[in-house]
């Protein structure tokens, strides 16, 4: 079942002579539960694509359909609600709120939805992320790997339909990087969550079901590595 | 290669952060403008106010009367005396050309040339006298129809005036305005201002020729001098004084002894020592000395040392406030940018920059800003002063309606080297202090902390608070955590908001303090009846048949819309001393102690100074107003209206001070004012044994009046307000009771009864009626006076208003600094929160939720600011109050609660507006990238 489809996405920054074509007529679709890696050199438009898919940036042209909804046709508030319920975003630099502790950062999207958080679920996520003894710490008191695990915990807590990760291991050492990828893959497999991951690391990219290559804002390669949900 | 890489990096940093650099620059400019205002503007303003004040009595500073030549020489030799002038009272002569029978004399004085200018002598015709044979005549004589013109000669035959009692039936004859009491057969000399009564049965005016004569040519006519009493028997005429004429001029016939004259001094105010008054008194050796305090007061040099102290004290408070606000503004800017600054300085540090170099970066930035802000601020400050003075000029004319203001020479800004140096030094000092704190802090931080940006990390843990989430939602939790876990950002905003409030509160308090001081020291009104609804007033000596007839005619006139009848009876009655409260007598005992320069015991006071009886004032209140007052006071109006069983309301409060209560010729130890909360010593229902003097029976008659109730001035404030000269109990009675009182006390010109005042509102101009009533003023020996009501502004009111305006300007300019500070802090706070904001949007926060969170944060910052402002302004309030109380005693200076509430509301509003103004949605993507 198709969960994500983007059609003729273009993104142009600036105008006139100084304009930059970050994305140029990008179209592809992703099946539910699929693990897709997006690779490409710096400046190829990977992060722009992810931000547009995540609804935090708007395309100049084209549309993004998630679960049949054209997300950029939604109003500002509806898009925000859609984002917190359906999308989990993970960034290279974690983007945690420095004033919230581990628990609070993880349940933040849930709380923004005005719902009471589920303590059992929180305990489970914290435990899965290996943060049980750090849950009352602020991000500034955690290592990079721990911060990224909080970021993943935040993305997973709400059971989003789709997880978008922008170089989640880019700021981590090899061991921490592997742990993070492992967590994401596990979530993809066990929860059947769709996972789109941007990476420079070919070894991570090759762990995906499918690999998209981006160059100068265009998809240059769309390669299926294995069947969705398949093992290594 | 760059000579100094630290400075280069600093400059680049300043260029990158143009907004913040600009706001800091503007802040410093405003600080310099304020300093210019304080030091240069104060001088200019004071100079201008002195010029206006000089319109009242002249620009002289001190006059010494009847002093010897030796005294003059001694005074002239004082180092702070800039110029001197001499004058003499030549004497009184008959003025045959007078057309006013009540003013048949000339009071001739002699002035040295400078005195004409100093005493505000303005020519309307001719020229000033150049020698002792010429004189100028007061315009009042010409206006009264005197048969003289410029060029005429006046032959003077000088005499001395005295009065002798001839009415054998009268016990004594009192001239209250001249302070003369004549007993049987007694003869007393009268002053220059004494009126001419002509022949009468009570007393006789004697003229004793001194044998001295003179011949003067009228060379000019002058505006009536301010010191000329229109009720005096003589017009003013001034002749020249100079050279030999001083002592042996042709006229040479002075009322003063030959070896005595009057000396007028003009000081060099900058050289004036604080105790100059004492020195002048010492030189005068008991001779009369007059200080022109209106002029001297503005330069804090009045003979009233308390007033000088207050002016200096408040100037210091305002300078400290400006400095405090400026230091906080600049410090805040440096502190807010600490994180960014620490990164680039950390990088420099990692490649070998020393702590000194890091500190120098901060000082360099301040210096760069100051070097441009200082001249800009000084020039802008001078411009603003000029502009303000230009605005004041026509405003003054409008406010006082006196043409003299418009005649003043254009305002020039008074710039002195000292003041300029003070502006520069204080500004540089303020900026250096502001930069010193962050420089010290940044100099101590190592490269690693700088680069990692974790200079303030703490190792404590923070638990989640589900209760907060439940009560205030995610927005509340976020706001709380933002405020409590990352204190530096919102703290700067809270400090700025608190400073804004403190400045406003303290300025409002300072303004009310100045008001109170001016009110206490200058405005000594007794009472003011609220007459805004009326156009004219008819005053009468008593409820005579003529008055009643006139009143009826006025009431029935179609031209009159409404009337109100009040009556004033100051010093009308007497009451036993126990009618006054113990609080009153205690205050009076303290007043006596101040006069006697020692603590007078209660026993001594009772024995020596307390009288058996004391005065009461009576005010007859318009019936309608009395009914309303009675209702407000919860007293039966019917009881008050019952003239057959007289009843009165007693006014609760009173004021007594060393200024309003004099003990013979003694000087009090210091000024002190007592606000008496409970003047009456009686309870409602008690009898007031009111004693009235019956002039027909020539004895005191007791008229029992029931105390219907005690009424506070607050209840009365819509009808009547009482000033600071109210040392006696006021009894408020109905007009019916007032008529009963006048039935005993007379209510005539020569008796101490109640004088009715009939206020009337006209339907349109009512020219016929007002014309007829105005003619009452022209009738000789009239019992009536008719006058148009209106806000009669006097010079002192104007000066108070100018002081208000200056304080207003101060508040506005200081508020601008505070607002810049607040804006800058909020901008810094929001700038640093941008990334968090972007993260929040990325995890699905809606705009509404963001706004709600911001409101919660604003509320938190506001509450914190209110608490800090409350503490700081409370402390400052206590400090100012302690200072002023030390000088003035128990001055009423309540905490300005309304001002505080207003400043809190304003600060809260500004905080919210600025927060939402700088809040921008378009912050997300970029700030999340790094």
Give me the secondary-structure topology.
The complex is a heterodimer of chains A (about 230) and B (about 950).
Chain A: E1 2-13, E2 20-31, E3 35-39, H1 46-54, E4 61-66, E5 69-70, H2 76-86, E6 87-90, H3 102-112, H4 119-128, H5 144-157, E7 162-166, H6 174-190, E8 194-198, H7 202-205, E9 210-215, E10 218-224
Parallel strand pairs in A: 3-8, 3-9, 6-7, 7-8
Antiparallel strand pairs in A: 1-2, 1-4, 4-5, 9-10
Helix pairs in contact in A: 3-5, 4-5, 5-6
Chain B: H1 5-16, H2 18-57, E1 62-68, H3 69-76, E2 81-94, E3 105-111, H4 113-118, E4 123-126, E5 134-138, H5 139-143, E6 153-165, E7 173-175, E8 180-182, E9 187-189, E10 203-222, E11 234-240, H6 245-248, E12 260-267, H7 276-284, E13 289-291, H8 293-298, H9 305-336, H10 338-350, H11 355-400, H12 403-407, H13 417-444, H14 447-452, H15 466-485, H16 488-521, E14 527-529, E15 536-540, H17 545-556, E16 560-576, H18 582-596, H19 602-609, E17 613-621, H20 623-633, H21 637-641, E18 647-651, E19 654-657, E20 673-676, E21 687-694, E22 699-711, H22 713-716, E23 720-722, E24 729-734, H23 735-745, E25 755-762, H24 767-778, E26 784-788, H25 795-842, H26 847-888, H27 897-918, H28 924-928
Parallel strand pairs in B: 3-11, 5-10, 17-24, 18-22
Antiparallel strand pairs in B: 1-12, 1-13, 2-3, 2-6, 2-12, 4-10, 5-11, 6-9, 6-10, 7-8, 14-23, 15-25, 15-26, 16-17, 16-21, 16-25, 18-24, 19-20, 21-22
Helix pairs in contact in B: 1-11, 2-9, 2-11, 2-13, 2-25, 9-13, 9-16, 9-25, 9-26, 11-13, 15-26, 16-25, 16-26, 16-27, 25-27, 26-27
Question: What is the gist of this entry?
Answer:
The complex is a heterodimer of chains A (232) and B (930). Chain A is of the alpha/beta class. Chain A has helices at residues 46-54, 76-86, 102-112, 119-128, 144-157, 174-190, 202-205, and strands at 2-13, 20-31, 35-39, 61-66, 69-70, 87-90, 162-166, 194-198, 210-215, 218-224.
């Amino acid at each position: 079942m198709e969960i994500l489809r983007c059609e003729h996405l273009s993104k142009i920054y600036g105008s006139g002579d100084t304009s930059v074509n970050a994305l140029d007529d990008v179209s592809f679709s992703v099946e539910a539960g699929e693990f897709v890696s997006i690779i490409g050199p710096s400046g190829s438009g990977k992060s722009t694509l992810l931000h547009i898919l995540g609804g935090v940036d708007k395309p100049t042209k084209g549309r993004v359909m998630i679960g049949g909804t054209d997300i950029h046709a939604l109003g500002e508030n509806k898009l925000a609600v859609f984002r917190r319920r359906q999308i989990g975003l993970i960034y290279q630099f974690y983007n945690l709120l420095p004033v919230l502790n581990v628990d609070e950062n993880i349940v933040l999207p849930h709380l923004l939805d005005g719902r009471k958080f589920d303590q059992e679920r929180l305990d489970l996520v914290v435990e899965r992320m290996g943060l049980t003894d750090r849950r009352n710490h602020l991000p500034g008191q955690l290592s990079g790997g721990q911060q990224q695990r909080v970021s993943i915990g935040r993305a997973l807590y709400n059971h989003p339909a789709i997880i978008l990760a922008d170089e989640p291991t880019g700021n981590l050492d090899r061991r921490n990087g592997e742990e993070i990828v492992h967590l994401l893959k596990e979530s993809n497999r066990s929860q059947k969550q769709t996972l789109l991951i941007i990476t420079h690391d070919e070894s991570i990219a090759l762990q995906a079901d499918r690999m998209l290559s981006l160059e100068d804002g265009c998809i240059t390669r769309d390669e299926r590595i294995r069947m969705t949900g398949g093992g290594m | 290669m760059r000579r100094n890489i630290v400075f280069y990096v600093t400059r680049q940093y300043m260029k990158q952060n143009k907004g913040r650099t600009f706001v800091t620059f503007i802040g410093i400019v405003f600080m310099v403008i304020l300093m210019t205002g304080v030091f240069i503007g104060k001088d200019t303003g004071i100079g201008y106010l002195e010029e206006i004040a000089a319109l009242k009595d002249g620009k002289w500073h001190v006059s010494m009367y009847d002093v010897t030549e030796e005294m003059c020489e001694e005074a002239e030799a004082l180092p702070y005396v800039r110029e001197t002038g001499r004058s003499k009272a030549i004497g009184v002569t008959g003025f045959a050309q007078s057309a006013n029978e009540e003013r048949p004399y000339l009071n001739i004085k002699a002035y040295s040339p400078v005195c004409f200018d100093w005493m505000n002598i303005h020519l309307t015709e001719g020229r000033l006298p150049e020698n002792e044979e010429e004189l100028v005549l007061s315009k009042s004589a010409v206006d009264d129809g005197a048969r003289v013109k410029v060029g005429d000669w006046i032959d003077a035959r000088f005499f001395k005036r005295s009065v002798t009692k001839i009415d054998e039936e009268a016990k004594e004859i009192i001239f209250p305005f001249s302070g003369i009491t004549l007993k049987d057969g007694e003869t007393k000399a009268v002053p220059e201002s004494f009126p001419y009564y002509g022949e009468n049965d009570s007393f006789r005016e004697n003229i004793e020729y001194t044998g001295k004569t003179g011949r003067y040519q009228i060379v000019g006519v002058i505006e009536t001098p301010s010191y000329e009493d229109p009720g005096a028997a003589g017009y003013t005429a001034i002749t020249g004084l100079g050279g030999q004429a001083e002592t042996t001029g042709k006229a040479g016939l002075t009322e003063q002894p030959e070896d005595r004259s009057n000396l007028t001094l003009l000081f060099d105010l900058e050289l004036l020592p604080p105790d100059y008054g004492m020195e002048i008194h010492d030189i005068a050796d008991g001779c009369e000395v007059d200080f022109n305090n209106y002029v001297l007061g503005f330069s804090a040099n009045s003979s009233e040392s308390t007033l000088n102290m207050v002016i200096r004290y408040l100037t210091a408070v305002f300078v400290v406030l400006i400095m405090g606000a400026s230091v906080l503004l600049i410090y805040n800017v440096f502190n807010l940018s600490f994180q960014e600054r620490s990164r680039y300085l950390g990088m420099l540090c990692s490649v070998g920059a020393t702590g000194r170099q890091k500190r120098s970066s901060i000082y360099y930035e301040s210096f760069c800003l100051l070097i441009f802000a200082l001249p800009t601020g000084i020039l802008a400050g001078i411009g603003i002063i000029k502009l303000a003075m230009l605005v004041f000029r026509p405003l003054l004319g409008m406010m006082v309606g006196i043409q003299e203001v418009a005649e003043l020479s254009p305002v020039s800004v008074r710039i002195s080297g000292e003041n300029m140096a003070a502006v520069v030094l204080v500004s540089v000092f303020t900026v250096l202090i502001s930069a010193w704190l962050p420089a010290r802090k940044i100099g101590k931080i190592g490269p690693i902390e700088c680069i990692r940006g974790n200079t303030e990390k703490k190792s404590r843990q923070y638990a989640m608070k589900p209760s907060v989430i439940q009560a205030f939602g995610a927005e509340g939790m976020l706001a709380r955590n933002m405020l409590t876990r990352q204190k530096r950002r919102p703290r700067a905003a809270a400090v700025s908001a608190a400073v804004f409030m403190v400045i406003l509160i303290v300025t409002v308090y300072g303004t009310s303090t100045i008001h109170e001081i001016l009110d206490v020291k200058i405005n000594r009104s007794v009472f003011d009846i609220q007459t805004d609804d009326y156009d004219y007033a008819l005053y009468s000596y008593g409820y005579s048949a003529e008055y009643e007839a006139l009143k009826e005619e006025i009431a029935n006139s179609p031209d009159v819309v409404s009337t109100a009848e009040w009556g004033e009876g100051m010093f009308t009655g007497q009451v036993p001393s126990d009618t006054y409260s113990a609080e009153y007598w205690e205050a009076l005992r303290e007043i006596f102690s101040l006069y006697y320069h020692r603590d007078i015991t209660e026993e001594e006071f009772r024995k020596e100074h307390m009288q058996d009886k004391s005065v009461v004032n009576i005010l007859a209140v318009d019936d309608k107003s009395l009914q309303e007052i009675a209702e407000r006071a919860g007293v039966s109006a019917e009881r008050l209206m019952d003239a057959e069983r007289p009843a009165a309301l007693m006014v609760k409060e009173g004021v007594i001070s060393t200024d309003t209560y004099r003990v013979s010729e003694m000087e009090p130890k210091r000024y002190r004012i007592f606000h008496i909360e409970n003047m009456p010593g009686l309870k409602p229902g008690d009898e007031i044994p009111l004693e009235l003097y019956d002039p027909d029976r020539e004895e005191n008659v007791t008229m029992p009046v029931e105390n219907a109730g005690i009424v506070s001035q607050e209840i009365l404030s819509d009808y009547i307000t009482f000033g600071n000269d109210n040392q006696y109990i006021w009894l408020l009675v109905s007009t019916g009771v007032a008529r009963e009182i006048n039935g005993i006390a007379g209510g005539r010109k020569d008796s101490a009864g109640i004088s009715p005042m009939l206020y009337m509102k006209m339907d349109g101009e009512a020219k016929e009626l007002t014309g007829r009533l105005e003619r009452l003023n022209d009738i000789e020996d009239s019992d009536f006076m008719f006058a148009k009501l209106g806000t009669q502004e006097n010079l002192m009111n104007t000066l108070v208003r100018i002081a208000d305006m200056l304080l207003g300007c101060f508040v506005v300019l200081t508020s601008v600094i505070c607002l810049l500070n607040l804006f800058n802090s909020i901008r810094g706070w929001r700038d640093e929160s941008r990334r968090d904001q972007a993260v929040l949007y990325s995890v699905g926060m809606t705009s509404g939720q963001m706004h709600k969170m911001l409101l919660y944060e604003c509320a938190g910052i506001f509450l914190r600011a209110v608490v800090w402002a409350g503490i700081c302004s409370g402390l400052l309030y206590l400090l100012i109050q302690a200072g002023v109380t030390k000088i003035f005693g128990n001055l009423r200076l309540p905490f300005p609660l309304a001002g505080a509430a207003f400043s809190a509301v304003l600060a809260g509003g500004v905080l919210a507006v600025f927060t939402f103004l700088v809040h921008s949605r378009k912050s997300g993507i970029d700030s999340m990238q790094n």
